[in-house]
Amino acid sequence: MLDFKPLTNWIHEMLTSVMPEGWAIFIECVVVGICIILTYALLAIVLIYMERKVCAFFQCRLGPMRVGKWGIFQVFADVIKMLIKEIISLKHSDKFLYELAPYMVIIASILAFACLPISKGLEVIDFNVGVFFLLAASSIGVVGILLAGWGSNNKFSLIGAMRSGAQIISYELSVGLSILTMVVFMGTMQFSEIVEGQAGGWYLFRAHIPALIAFIIYLIAGNAETNRGPFDLPEAESELTAGYHTEYSGMHFGFFYLAEFLNMFIIASVAATIFLGGWMPLHIPGLDGFNTVMDYIPGFIWFFGKAFFVVFLLMWIKWTFPRLRIDQILKLEWKYLVPISMVNLILMVIIVVFGLHF
Questions:
Q1: Alpha-carbon span 336 to 323, nearest angstrom
Q2: Which one of 67, 90, 116, 266 is CB 3.0 to 4.6 Å from 73, fit for a cystine?
Q3: How far is CA 260 from each of CA 60, 91, 106, 224, rounded to the nearest angstrom?
């Protein structure tokens, strides 16, 4: 298994040998921050192109075809267009809140993205309450969405923001309960320990029926939390023009757009980490030769492969089911998912307390 920890330790020792430790840590933080932002941007480009192609596949269309071979440069053309578009300042808006909202959404997304354990030794934020920190950081985004609706001084934007806020806050319960169910089984909230604990088998297959139920509920609730179809009512263009970001243009709108796609990737990555082993290869007990071959595949390949597999599942859901009404969205959460999640959590506690897991 490829371990990046010796490399990162060597870089730290080299820097501390030529400068004070404080400066070395500062430079490391700046470099890591730049790497996170670059990876964030590259993943956004890949996800937007993937969304268009998957959507076209499900709707028997071709998707982007003309800008470059298979339309691979279409996203870059869109990025350039977004960067050069004018950012309009509204006359009667709350200017401070209006300008602050997109930055809060994107910062919350990047903070959550930084928690993802991409490979062994490549955990940027890895401490004993990692899962709790990720849930807390990702929850900041809903404040930005509410501020966008309120600060725009547009009643349609405000309605879209209130819809989105109610939906996100509601479905965070199911996401949290699903993850808490697995935390009970795992006995830790540190992402590196969660991944290493799956060396003998991924938790989706080892943690009995409650893990499968938690996985399904997590995918449904995660899709709703990121305002993706069929839960994209806050952005119902037939009623609200665009929802909470109606009054935004240029890169201010681009921040909302990026955050939605990357939040989908974060949801998929957390599912891949907690349920599917993260960067841990597929190991089957008793098949030592097979396990040795799997160990040759780098951990980051496993991580991104699993994450994009879950992303495909989320896109499959989006382009298969029709959009739900707001009462249907909230009814699904409060009447079905929350009670099932609570019973599932109690069932997992019973399994762990009585030692029924293996």
A1: 18
A2: 67
A3: 25, 27, 9, 11
Under a CB-based contact definition with an 8 Å cutoff, are residues 273 and 267 in contact? no
Residues in the chain: 358
- Residue 168 tokens read as 């996100």
| 149 within 8 A of 162, measured Cβ to Cβ | yes
Q: How far apart are CA 4 and CA 15, in angstroms?
A: 17
Write down the pLDDT at residue 60. Answer: 85
- In 10 A of CB 69, how many CB atoms? 8
CA distance 341 to 262: 25
Helices (H) and strands (E) in the chain, counts: 16, 0
63-72, 94-103, 137-146: lowest mean pLDDT where? Answer: 63-72
Cβ atoms of residues 185 and 212 within 8 Å: no
CA distances, 168 to each of 21, 141, 340 (Å): 42, 9, 18
Look up residue 226 and give its amino acid.
T
DSSP class of 297: S
Residue 200 gets which letter from DSSP?
A: T
Where residue 241 falls among pLDDT bands split at 50, 70, 90? low
Could you give the dihedral angle defined by the CA atoms of residues 229, 230, 231 and 237, in that order, rounded to the nearest 10 degrees?
A: 70
Q: What is the C-alpha end-to-end distance of the chain, expressed in Å?
A: 24
Reply yes or no on whether the pLDDT at 177 is more than 70.
Answer: yes
Q: What is the DSSP letter of 298?
A: -
- DSSP per-residue letters across 213-269: HHHHHHHHHHHHHTT-TTS-GGG-HHHHTTSTTTT--HHHHHHHHHHHHHHHHHHHH
143 neighbors 120 (Cβ within 8 angstroms): no
Please answer whether residues 276 and 195 qualify as being in contact, where contact means their C-beta atoms are separated by less than 8 angstroms. Answer: no
Tokens 């955990």 belong to 123
| Other C-beta atoms lying within 10 Å of the C-beta of residue 19 | 12
The C-alpha angle 331, 349, 357, rounded to 5 degrees, equals: 120
- Cβ atoms of 164 and 244 within 8 Å: the answer is yes
What is the per-residue DSSP string for 316-348? Answer: HHHTTSPPPPHHHHHHIIIIIIHHHHHHHHHHH
**269: nearest Cα among 91, 141, 123:** 123
Query: In angstroms, rounded to a whole number, what is the distance separating the alpha carbons of residues 112 and 273?
Result: 14
